[in-house]
Specification:
Elements lengths: L9 H27 L10 H7 L11 H4 L15 E3 L5 E3 L22 E2 L4 E2 L2 H10 L7 H10 L7 E2 L3 E2 L5 E2 L12 E4 L6 H7 L2 E3 L11 H5 L6 E5 L6 E3 L3 E5 L14 E9 L11 H4 L3
Parallel strand pairs: 10-12
Antiparallel strand pairs: 1-2, 3-4, 4-7, 5-6, 8-13, 9-13, 11-12, 11-13
Family: Belongs to the SPRING family.
Membrane topology: Single-pass membrane protein
Keywords: Glycoprotein, Golgi apparatus, Membrane, Transmembrane, Transmembrane helix
């Protein structure tokens, strides 16, 4: 004969209910902690809920919250940088601060064309920064066509590369073909025997950049620098253009080989030195503060 099953006592039922409540409370706390620490985000959130989680005041809610109220609006955004994006409204943000519609939800405190860009060179160190700067310089910052134009415009320029994919400077992404540096800003200089252009320019308080070297890679520039050529020839090598002690000028037969760092003991390099303030390598960009590398 099968034994009769006893019904749970009231005290056992009470313990089960209490246990369920405790588990639910712990799960709720865990979800809140994940949201506050930047964990996985839902596709849609209340703007005021987000403001509370990010410790923002309920009054004067940021502009980005208007996007959350219009879920049908879509934003294009950049995809080349690993951690940051620029959306088609010109905002810059971390990838995990995007809404499902592609728009930035929390914009980084970075001014367009500010940190990471050089207005002298019209170039930036990140594709996203370049796109945001390009959009800021147009009359219609919310235009999808403007975003597409700027995204394509900010791809690598022919001036910015050496040997296919080795960049001459950190300013790889340019939003304009025309640099803002006047020709008179750079000065011709013949380096002492055995010196590189980097060393020669630095000794006079300037800086050498390979992007300026093609403009002086011809025989006439030696005369302009005060050293007329007895003869002029062409050779391939990273140490040219240069002049020998016998007065023979040598220009570089392959412009992609132009280099500021190379020296040779028996020639004087012809250099084009920029003032320090126009040196693209002097662009300050606080990677640690923004954590975008």
């Amino acid at each position: 004969m099968r034994p009769r099953t006893q019904a749970p006592s009231p005290s056992n039922r009470y313990a089960v209910v209490v246990g369920c409540i405790v588990v639910g409370f712990l799960v709720s706390i865990t979800v809140q902690i994940r949201l506050m620490s930047g964990g996985a985000r839902p596709a849609a959130r209340s703007p005021r809920r987000l403001a509370a989680l990010l410790h923002w005041p309920q009054t004067g809610l940021p502009v980005w919250q208007e996007i959350a109220k219009r879920p049908s609006q879509q934003c294009l955004y950049t995809k080349m940088d690993r951690r940051i994006v620029a959306d088609s409204d010109g905002r810059i943000c971390f990838r995990h601060h995007q809404f499902a519609n592609g728009c930035c939800s929390v914009a980084l405190p970075v001014e367009a064309c500010g940190a990471g860009c050089s207005e002298a060179w019209n170039c930036c160190v990140r594709h996203s920064l370049c796109v945001a700067c390009c959009i800021a310089r147009t009359s219609n910052a919310s235009s999808m066509e403007t975003f597409r134009h700027c995204s394509n415009r900010c791809l690598f320029t022919s001036e910015s590369t050496v040997s296919g994919n080795r960049f001459k400077s950190d300013l790889k992404y340019c939003y304009s073909d025309q640099h803002s540096i006047p020709p008179s800003a750079a000065s011709l200089q013949l380096a002492p025997l055995g010196w590189s252009c980097d060393r020669a320019c630095e000794s006079s308080g300037g800086a050498c950049d390979e992007a300026m070297l093609p403009a002086i890679n011809n025989c006439d520039m030696f005369r302009a620098a005060g050293e007329p050529c007895v003869a002029c020839t062409t050779q391939d090598g990273r140490e040219f253009p240069a002049i020998t002690s016998a007065g023979t000028c040598i220009v570089n037969g392959k412009e992609h080989m132009l280099d500021c760092q190379i020296s040779r003991h028996d020639v004087r390099r012809l250099c084009n030195c920029l003032p320090k303030e126009l040196d693209p390598h002097s662009v300050l960009f606080n990677h640690d503060r923004l954590r975008i590398v």
